Amino acid sequence: MRDALIALLQRVKIERQYVSNRLARVLRDERELTFRTDLLNTICTRVERSPEFQEFANLKRWREGTKGYFPEIALSNFLKWSGAYYKEDPTEESFIQHLMEQFEKHLQPDRRIKVRYLISLPWLDDPSLRKDPIQGGWFQLRMYSASELQDIVQNDIRRTFFPSTAIDEDILERLELETWLVVETDEDPGIQIDWRWIDGTISLTDLPDRVQDVLGALVIYDWWTELFERCYWWPGFPQGTRIVLRDDWLISPRRPLIGKFAYDIVDKEQGLVSPETVPFQCSGDLRTLPEVVRTIESLGECEGTAFIRRTVLPFLVRAALTEASPASKRDQFLAHVTAIEALVGSGGLDARNRLAKRVGVLVSPDNQREGAERFGRIWQTRNKLVHGATLDTVDPELSWEARELAALAVRRTIDILQSYREHGVVLNREEFCGLLDALALGRGPKDLTRLLELWPDTDA
Q1: Which of 82, 112, 288, 324 could form a disulfide with 233 if both were Cys (CB 3.0 to 4.6 A apart)?
Q2: What is the per-residue pLDDT across 191-235, written as a single tens digit (0 to 9) for each?
Q3: Residue 355 contacts by C-beta under 8 Å, 6 or more apart in sequence?
């Protein structure tokens, strides 16, 4: 394989010299980038038509290692990502050695691909994150400059070889005003088709567990805004830009999904900006986010408490990131109610009263009736919507009530389950609901006595 690689890189060098001699004279002024792109694509086309390229693509080792891909397309992508077309002398020994190492990595049959998810959060405005990012091991909450984003997404390579996936310069300038959630994970290799891009929608509810864990931890914080009165429907957290970076040189990159921007530049010279989406402020301490994420992750790894991660958080994240457009208000409201239902159970025949009592114990232990009444109002509206009522009959304030109650209930449950784990007890959903019922009644079965003593609001 090494000899075939050297022959291929020599072909790259020959074609680069040939094409450069013909086009170097026209690389001038503002047209330079365009002609440079044309130059590199011309070199690429000529190399891919060469016998050296075909010989390498037909190597047994290459075809076996790229099973599941089209070998020629995989080799084409590999050379583009490698930077071979940019180097004046791609036959340097250090570069050859680097490519051989990359070949070995990419041709491993059991390899996993490192993937970075960059998700902008246009509703989160915290300038301190530019100088002091929140570090959580495999995730970050931070801000980027336009030049940093340019390098991270390898925008030059995208612009030259994958132009439909490149990010425009003016968009990069606006993205540097965004707060970014950066999550690192690993996935199986292979060609990924993003159907949400094809049908024109953006979704953040179909992402890996690690991404959902951080988004879930974020949305359960106590967020507030002064720009919306409760006579208007709760607006939801606007979805931002989504960029997926796969460390896989065998495939073409995904096109970034450009969502709403936190700001729209009005006057670049004076640096004036105007808000375009609803900015939220966090009443809690975002610096505790890594601890919250670790708790959610640990609960998800235990079969008994995994219901938080598997069934509750997905509904809460979906609800929080569903904007209150006329077409989605109903879905947003019902997703919040469903998150609460997934948390405290179906309730049996007397669903409303039993669920209301459980929620009352959970969210307002000092005044259970108040919490139960809050849920009762939401449940009544939920029933109306399920049975065909129009949104005109729904009080917009209840959309805020549903959001706050769902986030508070989830936040409180996570704290309680973690408290029990620290005492060596893993509560499953059935046991958790049983404790809520016992606390609502003021008494419980004898077999729950020890568990009730450990309840965080009870003096042991």
Answers
A1: 324
A2: 555 544 444 444 555 678 899 999 999 999 999 887 777 888 888
A3: 340, 341, 344, 345, 347, 375, 379
- Does any domain span residue 440? yes
Q: Which residues of 229-253 are buried (b: 16+ CB within 10 A; e: fewer)?
A: eeeebbbbbbbbbbbbbbebbbbbb
Report residue 119: phi and psi, to 5°.
-125, 120
The reply to whether 304 and 253 lie within a common domain is: no
Nearest-angstrom CA–CA distance, 121 and 118: 10
**CA–CA gap between residue 45 and residue 56 (Å, rounded):** 16
**Which amino acid, residue 157?**
I
442: alpha, beta or left? (left if phi > 0; alpha if psi -120 to 50): left
Q: How many domains does the chain have?
A: 3
Collapse the DSSP code of 257 into the 3-class scheme (helix H, G, I; strand E, B; otherwise coil) and give the result: strand
Q: Is residue 325 part of a domain?
A: yes
Output the six-digit token pair for 399: 């959309």
Q: What is the DSSP string of 154-221?
A: THHHHHHH-GGG---HHHHHHHTTS-EEEEEEEE--S----HHHHTT---SSSS-HHHHHHHHHHHTS
Question: pLDDT tens digits for 67-117?
Answer: 878 999 999 999 999 999 988 899 999 999 999 999 999 998 888 889 999
Domain end: 252, 276, 300, which one?
276
The Cβ of residue 39 has, within 10 Å, a number of other Cβ atoms equal to 21
128 plus 83 within the same structural domain: no
Q: List the structure tokens of 174.
A: 């606006």
The residue range of the domain holding 165 is 113-202+239-276
Q: Does a structural domain hold residue 296?
A: yes
Over residues 340-352, the pLDDT tens digits come to: 999 998 656 577 8
Check whether residue 328 and residue 270 sit in a common domain.
no
Same domain, 266 and 325: no
pTM of the model: 0.85
**Tokens found for residue 69:** 């891909």
